[in-house]
Design a protein that fits this description.
The chain contains 4 helices and 17 strands. By secondary structure, the protein is mostly beta strands. The chain is globular and about 55 Å long.
Length: 342
């Protein structure tokens, strides 16, 4: 997901000119030693050095510097317009396995992302222009001994297929590799080579079309939101993300990206045809549809079968929910006592 940081950073640069970079440099010299005991104080002071032949900085280049083989990105303060930046690959890709090795930024209100998109990396908030995007959204508010990671496939006009995955380690303590494995009929989400989620994309011509046409572009970013900033994403995302106001880590906080593990700019080879998977029944929408006086999104629609927006999906004879979409199977973000198959 792309945030509005690009606009905010551009406004700051316009107002402050070269003092933006020099101001960050002065701050970095006094605090960089707290970022990583192995990183010299001056290593993050110059900024603007993360562009190479395969990657370019989309905005706020002064917040990224190379340390060894890692591009280290800073979230400078507890304000959205002071947190993070974005980089984008200089080539397009499609079928194949595409990955990034990441050490995530910690704490509430900050998100470290690796995603591919056929829309220039932008989130189409108007929901009028169709696009396809695959996301790893690593929220600092969800790190720990067992970290939760938000995975998503967006398609059409704001149709989201999101699901939490849980990995057995702290994603902010060390580097781990996150990868999309894209075939003609599926997208899998891999972490350190382990498949945590697979989506059958056979019903989605737009997803398959972008993959076959090599229309995807890779993006990596760090972004954040405070309580004073407008929210980003659906309610479940905003609630899980938290706000920078509650982030008690010493600032600046950082994330690292080892881009050498990412895709090659050459076209991915066409894989051998995979066996056709057995069809998985989708959750059945409950009778009824959208209505102006219906249940709000994410509410229980078992009795009314009528939603203000989205569709009323029946999980079983005891529960139904208004949702924008619903993947079959167990949803690991649900409380353990309710974790049965949709």
């Amino acid at each position: 997901m792309a945030s509005t940081l690009r606009q905010l950073c551009a406004v700051s640069t316009l107002l402050l000119g070269s003092s933006v970079v020099s101001g960050h440099e002065a701050d970095n010299k006094t605090v960089a030693a707290t970022i990583d005991s192995e990183v010299p104080v001056t290593s993050l002071a110059t900024g603007g050095s993360c562009t190479n032949s395969q990657w370019t900085e989309a905005y706020c280049p002064e917040r990224c510097s190379m340390w060894g083989d890692a591009a280290v990105v800073q979230c400078l303060a507890k304000q959205g317009d002071q947190c993070g930046m974005r980089m984008e690959a200089t080539w397009k890709m499609g079928l194949g396995t595409h990955g990034m090795t990441i050490k995530a930024a910690p704490g509430p209100g900050v998100v470290t992302t690796y995603y591919v998109s056929d829309n220039g990396g932008l989130y189409e908030k108007s929901c009028t222009k169709p696009w396809v995007e695959l996301d790893f959204e690593i929220m600092g508010n969800q790190v720990g001994g067992h970290s939760r990671i938000w995975t998503n496939m967006l398609r059409s006009t704001c149709e989201e297929h999101w699901q939490w995955i849980t990995v057995p380690f702290d994603v902010a303590q060390d580097y781990h590799t996150y990868a999309f494995q894209i075939t003609e009929s599926s997208v899998s989400f891999l972490v350190d080579g382990v498949n945590y989620r697979t989506i059958n994309t056979s019903p989605y011509a737009d997803v398959k079309g972008s993959a076959l046409a090599n229309n995807f572009q890779e993006f990596i970013s760090v972004w954040g939101k405070s309580s004073a900033d407008p929210g980003e994403g659906i309610p479940a995302f905003r609630e899980a993300m938290g706000v920078l106001d509650n982030n008690h880590n010493a600032f600046p906080i950082t994330a690292g990206f080892k881009r050498s593990s990412s895709s090659s700019p050459s076209p991915a080879p066409t894989p051998q045809p995979a066996p056709t998977p057995a069809p998985t029944p989708s959750p059945t929408p409950a009778p009824g549809g959208s209505c102006s006086g219906g249940v709000a999104l994410w509410g229980n629609c078992l009795d009314r079968h009528c939603c203000q927006s989205g569709t009323c999906y029946a999980k079983d004879s005891h529960y139904a929910q208004c949702r924008p979409s619903c993947e079959p199977g167990i949803h690991w973000d649900e409380p353990k006592e309710y974790r049965t198959s949709w």
